[in-house]
Structure formats: C-alpha cells, structure tokens
Amino acid sequence: MPQWLCNQLTRAFRKKDTRQIKLLNDCWFFYRNSVSEGSDHL
Q1: Angle at 39 between CA 35 and CA 41, to 5 degrees
Q2: Which residues, 6+ apart, have CB-to-CB distance to 24 below 8 Å?
Q3: Residue-wise pLDDT tens digits, 20-36
Q4: Burial class of residue 28 (count of CB atoms within 10 Å of its CB; 0-12, 13-18, 19+)
C-alpha cells in the first residue's frame, strides 16, 4: 500500500470519518486491481 494512502487512512480513522474511510478503501481496491491486471498481461 502506498505511504500516502496509509497516512490518509490513519488520519481518517483517527477522526472517525467513515465517508473518507470508505472512499480511501475504494481507492485502494481500484489501485490494487489495476496493478494486478497490468501484471497479468506481462
């Protein structure tokens, strides 16, 4: 997981900002899926 995303998630959890947590979670799954799809084509 990229460091910037880790930092954002930590901040969102500290503030108990569920909207931000859900958004960052979606970003992570999108990022992870796009990276894994890219490696499947190699």
Answers
A1: 125
A2: 5, 8, 9, 12
A3: 999 999 999 998 888 77
A4: middle
